[in-house]
Write a structure and sequence with these properties.
Helix content: 25-40%
Structural class: alpha/beta
Order of helices and strands: EHHEHEHEEHEEEHHHEEHEEH
Radius of gyration: 21 Å
Bound molecules: 4'-deoxy-4'-aminopyridoxal-5'-phosphate
Length: 356
């Protein structure tokens, strides 16, 4: 068909499935196993539905101001979007127009090559080292921009700030995006580097550490100029992206610091317990600083374990891709969910039940 010649054909991102089965253990999309902060519930209950006849504030000021306050930056340094996927998509469109290939790791968030494809941005995948760490020297080449998550996904491996500074300082002529979707689970944010580098953009999300994946909130912090360019693109696309309820509930979440810290501490404790148990069961993995563990088993193939767990309504993530096709990405759930996982793994691997 002739009309097909004019179509923007893309290979879309494949999100983790969202099964809805009674009693299932859902450890496949790195959601938070605990509810959002009590302040969020209160804000939802107090929301006056008649407000919905009005458009939302296109600047989402209530939320950008709450974030600016929390991270001690100016309001003009904050950009909010409908999930960090939205923020990242706009950042790709805004910053990666140089014609030279952008760089990101070969094993990383699988949306980066999709956006590059969508926007026709050339890209080069830089192999991670054998232990899945980033070799910063590999990013000292000509490029049109750089993006990587820290901790990386799906590996969970955290890089230190020196490594990040090395990459940012070696590339002053392009924008470097650090995708910190999982930084709250034990990493050190690159935000302090913003005082030194105007080519750095830090992106975070409410979907993991703030337990609001269903609400869709992400944000970027950078220098005013970067943020204003992102706003120009956003306002050339769709001005009213974030609805009234989301703005209000997002701001409430940021203000509930105590609950936030408690939730993180619980998840980190469970993660460390799960590491011990998985290791006893014969799994090997790097030292994850995120809310998931990326593990391979010494004897059994990951795909086989994945299918077994699925048959028991335990959902984890398996990527059939080069270098990682023998790994499972297991999100950290509640203690009870993780005990169920360990119990089923123990049964499958034919080991003595050491959980109870
Ligand atoms: N970056 C990374 C590294 C992720 O793993 C995810 C979660 N899929 C996102 C960004 C997007 O998260 P969200 O759109 O829910 O903020």
């Amino acid at each position: 068909m002739k009309w097909e010649e004019n179509i923007r054909q893309v290979v879309p991102y494949v999100p983790g499935e969202q099964p809805d089965r009674p009693g299932m253990v859902k450890l496949n999309t790195n959601e938070c196993p605990y509810p959002p902060a009590p302040g969020v519930k209160k804000a939802l209950e107090e929301f006056d539905h008649t407000e919905l006849r009005l458009y939302p504030d296109p600047d989402a000021s209530i939320l950008t101001e709450a974030l600016a306050d929390y991270y001690k930056v100016k309001k003009e340094q904050v950009f909010v979007g409908v999930g960090s996927d939205d923020v990242l998509a706009i950042a790709f469109m805004t910053f990666f127009n140089g014609g030279r290939p952008i760089l990101f790791p070969d094993i990383t968030y699988s949306f980066y090559d999709v956006w590059a494809g969508l926007y026709r941005i050339p890209y080069k995948e830089i192999p991670l080292r054998e232990d899945f760490s980033i070799a910063p020297g590999d990013y000292h080449i000509e490029n049109g921009g750089i993006i990587f998550p820290n901790p990386n996904a799906p590996t969970g491996i955290l890089e230190n700030l020196e490594m990040i500074e090395d990459i940012v300082s070696a590339n002053p002529d392009v924008v470097v995006i650090v995708d910190e979707a999982y930084i709250d689970f034990g990493g050190e944010s690159a935000l302090p580097l913003l005082n030194k580098y105007d080519n750095l953009l830090v992106v975070q999300t409410f979907s993991k550490s703030r337990a609001m994946a269903g609400m869709r909130i992400g944000f970027a912090i950078g220098n005013k100029k970067l943020i204003s360019y992102m706003n120009d693109v956003k306002f050339s696309f769709n001005s009213y992206t974030m609805d009234r309820i989301t703005q209000r509930l997002g701001a409430a979440a940021v203000k509930d610091e105590v609950y936030f810290r408690e939730t993180l501490a619980k998840i980190i404790k469970t993660r460390e317990w799960a590491k011990e148990k998985l290791s006893e069961l014969g799994f090997v993995f790097g030292d994850s600083k995120s809310n998931f563990i990326f593990a391979s088993h010494k004897e059994k193939r990951a795909e086989e374990i994945f299918s077994y767990l699925r048959s028991k309504d335990i959902f984890v993530r398996y990527f059939k891709k080069p270098r990682i096709d023998n790994y499972l990405r297991i999100s950290i759930g509640t203690d009870e969910e993780m005990r169920t996982l360990v119990r089923e793994l123990t049964a499958f691997l034919g080991r003595r039940n050491e959980v109870e």
